[in-house]
Records
---
Amino acid sequence: MTEGIGDPRLSAEGELALARMALDEADYGHAADHVAGALVHAPTMPEVHELLAKLAARTGGALDLFPLADHVYIGAVVARGHLLAAAGKPGEALELLAAATGHQPTVDWAGVPWVADPDLATRVDPDQLARTIMQVCAGVPDPVPDEQREPLRPYLRVAKHAAAAHPRHALLLGAASALARRMGETAIAIDWAQRGVRVMPSKLGEVWLGYAYRSAGRTRESIAALRRAVAHDPADLSVYADIAGTLADNGQLDEAIRWIDDALARDAEFDCAVHTAHRLRYRRDGKLSHLVALADFQRHHPDDSHEHTDLAECCQDVPWLGRLPAAGEAVINVLRQMLETEGPITGGRLRLSNLEPPSAMRTVGAALPDMAVMVERVPEPDIRLPRRTGGRSVWEFFETDAMPALREPSDAAVERIRQLALPAWPHPQSAYDAAVSLALLDMDDLLALLVHPPAPPATELGTALAAHDPSLWVRSVQVWACLGLLHHRTDEPWRTSTRRRVLLDLAWGVEDWITEAALFALVTAAWVTPEVRADVATLVRERLADIAEVVRRRPVTIAWSVAQLALATPELDAKTELVARTIIAAERPVEEPPAPPQRKAGFWRRLLGGRG
């Protein structure tokens, strides 16, 4: 099989050439393989379908050449679907195309003449049509982004033909409404759902109608339909959650919580109700305890009825809960500005009033090696000295120049961190789970990554970071390296563990971005392990108190970020929370760099803040 690199049509033509050779030699198995490969590259290309028809003619239908198995190739699934359609089994054929769409919804698997034929809807059982349309709906977002809708339009045409051919089939009308809603066709979605409910009033029909109204912004009618759904089946608590979510999205938060409390009174463990309740209560009062309780529930109920995104939605774009804050040092702000200038950057001199954290200074030195950075003074307390002595040091200073005190990391560690380091995550528990892939790295390698961050990978993300904000990449490496340390020797009791001791050494070491990364790892430990929460809250309180003391004497560029970390700490006491909020209010907020010229702002927002 070709790798599919380059022009898809050329790749398909290459597969077809090989398929024709195999067909001429009566090597039907290899011919089928290459036709399947061609379909993957160009699923609507007429020449591919012509050769598939020839293969079928030579072999009596060719279905045996495209069997369904546990790990079947998607091209073989699509080929079998087209052969079934030709054999007079369009219902089964459409189901296979829908399965392919569920696997790769951005590919135009169904954009072929037999699917577009209006008579298809009369030749397929309406129950089967309804199931197939629901299958398509299950595999695509709600709503489908504009740029992803075109490959799904063949199914919407099928739905339109089906609604016309079977005007009194309630299930089919409702399923068609669900697809139309996802495709932005809200008027049609409402019409079909209304017709379905008139034909056969049901809970599912009212839910479809409620969703259609909601997508159209008709909140009152949406709530009314969902209430009727509850009347049909008071035991279906998922509808309660839908009603609560709809009310909350339209500013009726108190009523939304009353609905979700009613659901919890009926079943305190029902996953949809629990997720919705914590999300809405967090929206009401902003208390972190709701999110921590939701994370605990999610960890203890891995087999929920379906995937929930409530925790990720609440953490999205919140410093440390869902993303890494941008660095706020003066030297980094200058670096960002200079990287946005046109033309090569050579020479120059930068004068700093105060020495800033070593990671920041070295990031600028690596990005602008020809620039001379002059430091006017090193105020007290000396930023070059650990805040507590006795721990392992990762930096050593020569005057104001910081140098790594550790050897460089291994190639394996560099490759692993490049695959993992990102400036955003769904929530702390998710970050912890993702970092398990670092568990097999030596501790010395993880520590070395903190002071020897590798160059970013040659991906779109890595290229953007290198060009516009190298500091965010360095900080990402440090955060994920510390999360890796959190997975080190997990069999050791927490209080006396190596991982706790090392992370504490880093948190109390030289004031640096590494301080933040180590504290985030400790906070993450509290998120995933309730037994360590009191200890971590104490550690964060002590470190924040030290920063509050230092801030009275000199600038602390990491103060705002560490205060945000404190607010992300489970079971933090009220006094420390007040200290954190005071620091946040007093310190200049860390500013994210502006969207670079000639780049899509949406991509840059996703890159920096995890926003969609």
---
Amino acid sequence: MAGPGVPGAPVARWKRHIVWQLRLRDRTQKALFLELVPAYNHLLEKAELLDKFSKKLQPEPNSVTPTTHQGPWEESGLDSDQVPSLATLRVKWQEEEEGLRLVCGEMAYQVVEKSVALGALESELQELQSERNLRNERRERAKQARVSQELKKAAKRTVSISEGPDTVGDGMRERTETLALAPEPEPLENEACEKWKRPFRSASATSLTLSHCVDVVKGLLDFKKRRGHSIGGAPEQRYQIIPVCVATRLPTQVQDVLDAHLSEVNAVRFGPNSSLLATGGADRLIHLWNVVGSRLEVNQTLEGAGGSITSVDFDPSGYQVLAATYNQAAQLWKVGEAQSKETLSGHKDKVTAAKFKLTRHQAVTGSRDRTVKEWDLGRAYCSRTINVLSYCNDVVCGDHIIISGHNDQKIRFWDSRGPHCTQVIPVQGRVTSLSLSHDQLHLLSCSRDNTLKVIDLRVSNIRQVFRADGFKCGSDWTKAVFSPDRSYALAGSYDGALYIWDVDTGKLESRLQGPHCTAVNAVAWCYSGSHVVSVDQGRKVVLWH
């Protein structure tokens, strides 16, 4: 049960009620068909068997002779006392066959009735879900309206400033006294705190301008958010927000092609500054590259991985690299150090995904051992193990949520503050990759049914499905990504081409055929929106602009 203060606790009752109703409906409907379907199949088998016997008893045309020349039973050699028994059996079988047909018709009618009832129940469930989504949207709009009103009121409030470096207005003094009760802010929070702690230099009483007052309120709210929504709560160290471009440029041409690894290249990732790139392959190496103009230049090679690299990720600061490997572990490097800093061991099968969380010193891994693990990187130990029913092929992390894609064609959502799965969204085909938009409102999935799907996380519905003639997902680890501004979805195909769709219209925007001669395993779009990199099963790394 969610504790007090945890968002979503009041909603858990009606969620459990809906789940209980669905399970009750499944048990009720299943009980009705448990006896019906086997009986129907048994009757069909008997009808088929009787039909075969009936065909065998019919005389062949060549054995029938006219009654004017000889007796009807002379050539066949049958006794006259056997004729009534055969005729009787034939009539009996025909009656039974007719009865079976009637029974089958009745059972088919019952199946139709049950199907209609099931459709009605599904329609009712969809209506309930639509009403729930509508209530959630209204609640969110009301919340945004309240915040907007509070900001407007704060902007209109006049705060008097007295002369002197140690005195502030009443409104500012109240905030200073309240925040003085909290622990010393972390270095990451000093910038926000300085907005309201710094003394004013005005020599006379004045009032705050509208823009400055809004900045003060935003700084206060941002400070409270970074402290875990509670001024007096335990500090939560978070990375600074990565700047993202406003408009993405579509790639049109190849700028550089390299045979980067000794064998297949499985993973690629840009650093937050968009000038550093990491690639990982089956040769157990991670190469770091500098994007210099239109070329890729070698920065360094990270060694020490115990198996093939399946995924790579930069932390939001850009100073650490995390990789998932086939030796049942994930490994951590510092940029600038060639040897691995930490090994996160504990999985019992290949680790297929490893991602940093937005809070410092925390990461998440997914594996083919049907577990998802959370890690404390400061102490290099597993802080939580989530058991799942299917292989995990990829994971992404939001503020307080972990999303995992699985081999059983399902995407699962986990609250990082609670023990249970909060939601499951089924998709067609094994999930090969997940990509979370920068605003954490949309999720892009790639699956083996050769489609990409955009899921609106505000209503938990599939918003768009992308297909294209010629596009085919080449492997269970094919990675697709959003553009930094979420305008486009990018994926590589088994034939070496790149496909780009417009997220808003669903239209195939571009198909790029370049130097790839084998299946494209992964793609990456830099945060500035200017470059795209693709890697394939034939050792190639291609820079697009």
